[in-house]
User: Which sequence fits this backbone?
């Protein structure tokens, strides 16, 4: 005789979901909880050690970089390069100032520092004028 194929409805009706925690003895649950707690403690300790190692490594790296920079500054070629950088920077700044002065002069504009000086002088003159007016009024 040929076996009858089972229908899906009878198959799903027989399927029962088991919760394995229901079958686990209490002593096993307690042991698993203890193991979980210990693992969390180890994880926390590892994170703390990792952070400490990262901070210490960063400090050592920064110290090493400063030492290398200090040693490099002693090399004659580096010294000369630093001098050239400073000279070029000064020349560029001077050229920019000269160019700006030419632009202001050609357009007959006053520079901001000149305007501020003039404002201070005007304020002083106004103060003196008020003082003179008070003296005349008295």
Assistant:
């Amino acid at each position: 005789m040929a076996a009858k194929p089972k229908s899906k409805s009878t198959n799903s009706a027989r399927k029962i979901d088991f919760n394995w925690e229901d079958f686990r003895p209490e002593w096993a649950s307690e042991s698993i909880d203890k193991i979980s707690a210990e693992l969390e403690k180890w994880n926390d300790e590892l994170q703390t050690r990792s952070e400490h190692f990262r901070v210490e490594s960063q400090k050592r790296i920064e110290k090493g970089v400063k030492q290398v920079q200090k040693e490099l500054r002693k090399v004659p070629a580096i010294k000369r390069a630093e001098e050239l950088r400073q000279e070029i920077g000064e020349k560029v700044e001077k050229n920019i100032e000269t160019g700006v002065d030419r632009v202001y002069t050609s357009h007959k504009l006053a520079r901001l520092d000149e305007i501020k000086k003039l404002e201070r002088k005007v304020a002083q003159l106004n103060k003196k004028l008020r003082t003179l007016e008070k003296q005349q009024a008295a």
Q: What stands out?
A: The mean pLDDT is 85. The two ends are 137 Å apart (CA to CA). Residues 27 and 70 are 64 Å apart (CA to CA). The chain has two domains: 26-71, 75-131.
